[in-house]
Amino acid sequence: MLTFRAISEDQPGPKWAGLFRDYWPAYARWWSREGLSNRPTWMECHRAMAQHMPELLPLYETLCDLVGGGDMESRFLSFFCPPAYLSGCSQALWPGKEPLLVRNYDYDPSAFDGIVLKTRWQGRGVIGTTDGLFGLVDGMNDAGLAVSLTFGGRRETGTGFGVPLILRYVLQTCTTAEEAGKALSRIPCHMSYNVTVVDRARHFLTGYLAPDRPALLAHTAVATNHQERVEWSSHARLTATVERERYLLQRLTLHPDTQEKFIRTFLRPPLYSTAFAAGFGTIFTAAYRAGKGQAEWHWPGQVWNKSFDHFPEDSVTLTFPGTVQMSGF
Question: Rounded distance, CA 128 to CA 147, Å?
Answer without folding.
Answer: 9
